[in-house]
Amino acid sequence: MSAGGIRWLRVLVGSLLAHVAVIGLAALCFRLPNGTTILLYALVPLCLGATFAFGFWAARGAQDLFVVHGLLVGTLTALASAILSWRTTLPTVYVVANCLKMAGGAAGGWLAAFYYCRVTRFQTTTPK
Predict the structure, then answer these.
(1) Tens of pLDDT along 26-82?
(2) Which among 55, 69, 101, 118 is least surrounded, fewest beta carbons within 10 Å?
(3) Are the beta carbons of 112 and 56 closer than 8 angstroms?
């Protein structure tokens, strides 16, 4: 399922998995004593790390447009969070975390592109 070189199935699955990972780990943090305080500090690196990992995963499956794949994972994850928290007053940290989801996804896509370039360069320069 690719249109215009974008593998939409990998993007959608990566976005869904990133969102599930963030919500699951946030639920675990919330159940701890002083969970809301822990969640305020843990949410930003959690969102960044989850979209980075799944943006990297989605971009590794592509043959081209690596950063776009990662950015789409981050954007869809941020969009899903915005839809779920519609008409809810959120702390500023949550808004920043949503913006960092896009940055984390793009960084994961960039790392996949870097990895792809390193592997293909190594494979083409070694004698057979």
Answers:
(1) 899 888 888 888 888 888 999 999 999 999 999 998 888 999 999 999 999 999 998
(2) 118
(3) yes
Where on the phi/psi map is residue 7: left (φ > 0), alpha (ψ -120 to 50), or beta? beta
DSSP letters along 49-88, please?
HHHHHHHHHHHHT-SS-HHHHHHHHHHHHHHHHHHHTTT-
To which H or E segment does residue 31 belong?
A: none
Q: How confident is the model at residue 94 (pLDDT cuts 50, 70, 90)?
A: confident
**73 is written with which tokens?**
């994972």
Between CA 21 and CA 101, with CA 55 as vertex, the angle to 5 degrees is: 65
- The whole-model pTM stands at 0.85
CA distance 46 to 10: 21
